[in-house]
Predict the structure of Haloacid dehalogenase-like hydrolase domain-containing 5.
Amino acid sequence: MALRGSLRASRALLRSPGPPARGLCSRPPAFGFLFDVDGVLVRGSQPVPAARRAFQRLADSGGRLRVPVVFLTNAGNCLRSAKARELSHAVGLQVSPEQVVLSHSPLQLFSQFHQRYMLVAGQGPVEENAYNLGFKHVVTIEALRKAYPLLDMVDLSRRPKQLPPPTTGFPTIEGVILFGEPVRWETSLQLITDVLLSNGNPGAELQEVPYPHLPILACNMDLLWMAEAKMPRFGHGTFLLCLESIYKKVTGRELKYEALIGKPSPVTYRYAQLLIQQQAEKQGCKAPIQRLYAVGDNPMSDVYGANLYNNYLKSARHSQAQAGLKRSPQAASAQAEVSLELRSDCSSSVESCESILVCTGVYRHSVPEGTEAQTGERVFHGHRDFCFEPSLLQPSHIVQDVDDAVQLAFEKENWS
């Protein structure tokens, strides 16, 4: 499977933290923060007012973070450097690209696909992102459409007026990367389906449907996300739902994923944890990081993901791999494989990952009395490959905004 060995690779990839910045930790924290972005720190292009207050608490007088922080977002239509600049403006502090985990960031670990010809779908700098992640042969939806103009037929204005000559020399597609929701859904849905049905040769006549189909790596499963509009907007999870439904309707078979990356995938949280530990070393903090606080606005991606990862951490800590595998809901086989690696890895110092839900984004209910959460989530918005387990949608705490989340964590840690 595609995830085999990826966690071991991540440890080697992040082993060299660089020289420590001395003097930043008068009392080394034993905890770190995983901050969601949309709905927590920003709403569309507008910063959430509480974001700067929160980071004033997190920084020292010189504007340097006193606690390790990773920005864990399911956004993926930009470069890490661009997202870091956006976050620097939102929180009022310098954010480095190394602190940003985009939905596709863990694909850097999937070296077994880096030499294949991969079709990439999404928007923004998808080609540059793919190359930055280590992929060597990248084919965009637009390049495929130009090579095979007869495939894109929904928009009447884009249909060729004359029969084009046959395409020659175009490479056979060997896999698909779904970075995020595209602009023209009908074009991407059609061409991706063509590639899967033709085993990577969409110009060929369909003889029989190959199954299993080509490997698919999908990033960002969010059904909805929160921008400036009053109601949530469709996310990449909605696009995946369309693709899965079309493939099932056409072939009678289930679309399978080699890997699902981004929250709530455990491999994404593992990757973020390694970055947290790397930051702690850079800050000169010798105390091990034992607790993570995951702050988000979406019960399905942020809360579910943090709670699922917390279950894995507990199982690994108590060396109950088989018993834990039966108790915890699992995703597709690739995700189950991640869970087994996590459960067998007892070398990590991190013991827990607590979820804190804020009310400035997708989840907008009033804060109830006390901090125990009852989100009232009745409709499962998660991806079909993740089982519906209501307890995983219940955050450890509900607070009004990200500033309250930071204060809560400080109080729990007796740290100021």
